[in-house]
Amino acid sequence: MPPKAPSKTPKKSKSEMSAEHKQALAIGRDESRAIRLYLEALEAHKPRRGRRRTVEGIEARLERIEAELTAADPLTRVHLAQERLNLQEELASRQEAVDLSELEEDFVRTAAGYSQRKGITYAAWRDAGVDATVLKRAGIPRTRG
User: Fold this and answer.
1) pTM score above 0.85
2) How far is 81 from 94, CA to CA, in rounded Å?
3) What are the residue ranges of helices labelled H in 6-145?
4) Confidence class of residue 144 from pLDDT cuts 50, 70 and 90?
5) How would you write 31-61 as a 3-class SS string?
6) Tell me, what DSSP letter sits at residue 2?
7) Engineering a disulfide at 120: which of 36, 82, 111, 115 sits with its beta carbon 3.0 to 4.6 angstroms away?
């Protein structure tokens, strides 16, 4: 088989990104990060349905589980052990102080430009759980689609 002939089209060299383009990408990454972190924090701390458990209630249930474990059959013991782990995790997460104010400020600072570039409406933000007062502070107007 004869060797392949070199192609006649010249190879294009990779063009360098301009400083403006690099800066725009960096701004986009920062804004996306601020939006994502705020939405994740809202999701993690949104109210759940039903009656809220108190720390005292969780601790009381943990004590009852410990008492029940000694006389429980093996299958019940597994279920109680899992419930104990779940309650301990819930208790630990409640004791962590959650301060959304810094994340909210970053969101307020970046959301208007991000919304405009990405075509995200007021209604979409509200549907994602963002409070109306936060959207107002961010300068995102109510619109009808």
Assistant:
1) no
2) 20
3) 19-44, 55-69, 74-95, 101-118, 122-127, 132-138
4) low
5) HHHHHHHHHHHHHHCCCCCCCCCCHHHHHHH
6) P
7) 115
